[in-house]
Amino acid sequence: MTSNSILIEARGIKRHYLRGSETVKAVDGIDLEIHAAEMVSILGPSGSGKTTLIHLLSCLDSPTEGSLSINGKPVAGLKEDELTKVRRGVLGFVFQKFYLLPTLSVAENVELPLLFYRQPVRREETMAVLRQVNLEDHARFMPNQLSGGQMQRVAIARALIIKPKILIADEPTGNLDTENGIAVFDLFRALVREQGISVIVTSHNLVFGYRADRIITLADGRIVREEKGPAAA
Amino acid sequence: MRFISLALKNLFRRPVRTALTIAGVALAVAVAVSLAGFNLGYQQAIERSIDRLGFQVMIMAKGCPYEAATMMLKGGTGLLYLPADTFAQVHSDPEILSITPIFIGIAEKQGSSIREDSSSAFAVLTGVEPKTFLEMKPWLEFQSGTGFDGGKWFSPDATDEVVMGYEAATYEQRKVGDKFLATVSPYGQAEPVSKEFKIVGVLKRTGTQDDGTVFLPIKTAQAFFNRPNQLTILGIKLKDFSGGNLQEFESRWIKLPEVQVVSLEQVKSTLVMLIGTAQVMIVAVTVIAILVAIIGVINTILMSVYERTGEIGVMKALGAFRGDVFQLIWIETLGVCLAGSIAGGVIALGGAHLTEKAIKAVIDIGIQGSIVTITWPVLLGAFAGAAVVGFFAGLYPAWRAASMLPVDAIREGIG
Ligand SMILES: Nc1ncnc2c1ncn2[C@@H]1O[C@H](COP(=O)(O)OP(=O)(O)O)[C@@H](O)[C@H]1O
Ligand SMILES: [Mg+2]
After folding, report:
1. Environment class of residue A47 by beta-carbon count within 10 Å: exposed (0-12), middle (13-18) or buried (19+)?
2. Which residues of A190-213 are buried (b: 16+ CB within 10 A; e: fewer)?
C-alpha cells in the first residue's frame, strides 16, 4: 500500500477528561493509520476508550495531544464548522441508537444528509443505497414500522448516500441480536469489497468484531493488540 | 426536502404541546389585534355617534359636561332640566343657524316587553319640535312596507301621537296605526300616570340612539311629565363653527344661571381621553399576554431542542453546519409564531362582536355601532409582529441547539 492510500493518520493522540480532580485518560497515546478499502474493527471492554477514539478519528472531537490528519489534511486547531467541512463527503456515520428522524419516511431519512450538503435529491440514488442494505421495498415505511435490524440498515443507507470514503460505526450492533449483528458486519464487508469504502467499527462483542481485516483491541485508552482478521486477504 | 418541511414535521411530533404553544400565541395575538381594532374603531365610533346628534353645541343644565354628553348618547339616566325660557333668550342669537329644543323623559318599562335586559328596562320619550329637529337630522326617514306605509311626523300640537325609532318599534312589536301605552311618574305627583298614544310613523334604522327613542311633540311631553316650563337640551348649529366663534358664543350665554354651553368637539375629546385611560389597562393585559406567549414559545422550543440533543448531534455528524441547525430550530419557532398569529387573527375577527360587548360593559358611554374595527393592516401588522417576536424568540433556542457539540450531543443521547 502506498502512503497516499492512507485516509486517516493518527500520531500519539490523547484525549484526557477532567472528572473532578481526577484525569480520565480515555485515549492515551494511540498511533493508527486507516487505509483505503479496509475494514478495521476496534474491540475492547466498555470504558476502554473505543467511542472516544473513533470520535477523534472522525474529528467529531479534538485530541488533547498528538497529531491527526484526515484525507491528508491536518485537523489540529480547526473550528467546529471547519471540522464539519473536513468530514463532509469523506465520513459517514452509523450509531448504536440509529437516530432516524421519526417524522420522516425511510427514504427521507436516507436523503437527510443531502439537505445539509445542499444536493438535489435523486430518488434513483436513494433506491440504489436502499437496495444495498436490502430495504428497497421499505422506502415509504416510517421508522416506527421497522425492526431494529432494519432501522440500523436504514442508518447505514443514510451514511452511504453521500458516498463516503470511510464509514464510521460506533457499536452498530449494540442494540441488535446476533443474527442482525452478523448481517450488519457482512454488509460492511461487502461495502469494503465492492465499493472500496473503508469501515471503522467498534464493538465489545467478539462474535462480530472478528469479521474484519484488522482487529485492534483497546484497554485503558491504549492499543493492547493489533491482528489481522480472518477476512483479511 | 427542505428545511421548512423538516422543521414543520418536527412540530408535529408533539402535537399537543405544539398546539398549546400556538394557542398561547393565538391568544396574545387575538388580544393585541382586538386592542388595535378597538384603537382604530372607538375614536371613529365616538365621532360618528356625536356627529349623528346633528348639532355642534348643546345648551344644557349645569352639571358634569361629560355626564351630560353620555346621557345624550344613551338617552338615559340622570336627567337635568333647564328653564324653557332659555330657548326664547338664546334663539335670536345672530350666530345661530338653527336651534331645536329637546325634552327627554323616561317612561317606565312596558308590560309587553319580551326581552328583559337592562338596556330596555325603560323607554326614552323625547319631546321634539319636528321642523327644527329635522333641520338637525335631515337623514331621518320613515320605514315603509306592510304596516309601516304612510308614516309621517305628528303635528306640533298633537297630544296623542308618537313616532317610534326602529328598535323601539321592533322591541314593542308596533306598527303604524298601533297604540302605544306609556306610563310615567309626572314631576311632583305620587302616582304614575298612563297615557295611550297612536303611532303615526316608524323611523328607519339610523344606528344611533334615535333608534331606541319614542318621539312626541315637545309640548305634549312637557305636559305628560308635568314639567311645562322645562327643557333638557337646546341643540344648536352655528353659522360659523370655528374655535373663536364658538368661544364667543359660549361666553355670551355662559352668563345665564343654571346652564352650560357644551361643544360636541369638547365632548368628543373628553370621551376619547376617557377611553384612552381605560386603554392603559388593556395595553397592560396585552403586554402580559404577549410576554407569556413569548416565554411559552421559548420554553417549548428549548424543551424540544433538549429532547432532540442526540438527534441534533447526529445531524451535525451527518454534515450539518451550525447554521443549518440554527436555521432549523429557528424556522420551528417562526412556524409556531406565525401559526399562532393566523389563529389569533381569526379568533379576533370571529370574536370582535364579543370584544365589543365586553368593552361596552366596562366603559359604557352609550356609543352606538361598532367600536372595534379590525382591518387588513391590523391583521398584517399582527402577522408581522408575530414574525418579529418569533425571530427573536427563536434566537436563543436556535443558538443553544447550534452550539451543542456533536460528541456531547451524541453521548448524551446515548445516555
Ligand atoms: N465527556 C466525558 N467526560 C469525562 N469522562 C468521559 C467522557 N466521555 C468518556 N469518558 C470516560 O472515558 C472513558 C472511555 O469512554 P468511552 O470512550 O465511551 O469507552 P467505550 O466506548 O469503550 O465504552 C470512560 O472511562 C468514560 O467514563
Ligand atoms: Mg462506546
Report:
1. middle
2. ebbeeeebbbbbbbbeeebbbbbb
Q: Which of A161-175, B67-81, B375-389 has the lowest mean pLDDT?
A: B67-81
Whether B352 is covered by a domain: the verdict is: yes
Residue having the nearest C-alpha atom to atom 12 of ligand 1? A26
Mean of the per-residue pLDDT values for chain A? 91
Given a contact cutoff of 8 angstroms between Cβ atoms, the answer to whether B364 and B74 are in contact is yes
User: Count of H helices and E strands in chain B?
Assistant: 14, 11
What residue has cell string 458516498?
Answer: A163
C-alpha distances in Å from residue B247, one per residue of A109, B6, B47, B84, B98: 79, 69, 21, 23, 18
Is A169 inside a domain boundary? yes
- The per-residue pLDDT for range B201-218, each reduced to its tens digit, is 999 988 788 888 999 999
Residue B201 near residue B176, CB atoms below 8 Å: yes
Indicate whether B231 and B290 sit together in one domain.
no
Task: Give the pLDDT of residue B70.
Answer: 66
* Whether residue B106 sits in one domain with residue B33: no
Look up the ipTM and state it.
Answer: 0.90
Contact across the interface for B13 and A55, Cβ inside 8 Å: no
- In the sheet with B193-202, reading across from the earlier edge strand, the strands are B179-184, B193-202, B161-164, B213-217, B123-128, B96-107, B233-238, B57-61, B259-263
Average the pLDDT over B324-351 and give the result: 93
Residue B54 within a domain: no
Looking at this protein, which amino acid is placed at residue B196? Answer: E
Point out the residue among A95, A111, A112 whose CB comes nearest to the CB of B410.
A95
Inside any domain, residue B157: yes
Which of A99, A153, A130, A121 shows the shortest CA–CA distance to B5?
A121
Whether B379 is in a domain gets the answer yes
HEC readout, B229-250: CEECEEEEEECCCCHHHHHHHH
Phi and psi at residue B88, to the nearest 5°: -60, -35
Which residue range forms the structural domain that includes residue B18? 2-48+271-414
What's the CA gap between B29 and B160, in Å, rounded?
Answer: 55
For A62, counting Cβ atoms within 10 Å of its Cβ (0-12 exposed, 13-18 middle, 19+ buried), the class is middle
Which of B314, B404, B405 is the best substitution to test chain A (most A C-beta atoms within 10 A)?
B314
Please, where are the H alpha helices in B164-254? 166-172, 218-224, 243-253
Query: Which residues in B lie closer than 8 A to residue A87 (C-beta atoms)?
Result: 317, 319
Give the ligand 1 atom nearest the CA of A48. 22
Which of B202, B229, B257 is a domain's end point?
Answer: B257
User: Has residue A147 been placed in a domain?
Assistant: yes
Contact A131, A156 (CB under 8 A): no
Per-residue pLDDT tens for B376-393?
988 999 999 999 999 999
> Which range marks the domain in which residue A135 is found?
37-62+77-232
Greater confidence (B320 vs B79) lies with B320
- Please tell me whether residues B109 and B239 are part of one structural domain: yes
Q: What CA–CA distance (Å, rounded) separates B80 from A1? A: 111
Question: Ligand 2 centroid to A103 CA: how many Å?
Answer: 27
B101 pLDDT above the threshold of 80: yes
User: What integer is the mean pLDDT of B275-292?
Assistant: 85
| 3-state SS assignment for residue B57 | strand
What is the rounded CA–CA span in Å between residue B81 and residue B68? 11
Q: Are residues B36 and B67 in the same domain?
A: no
Nearest to B2 by CA among A98, A144, A120: A120
pLDDT of residue A210: 83
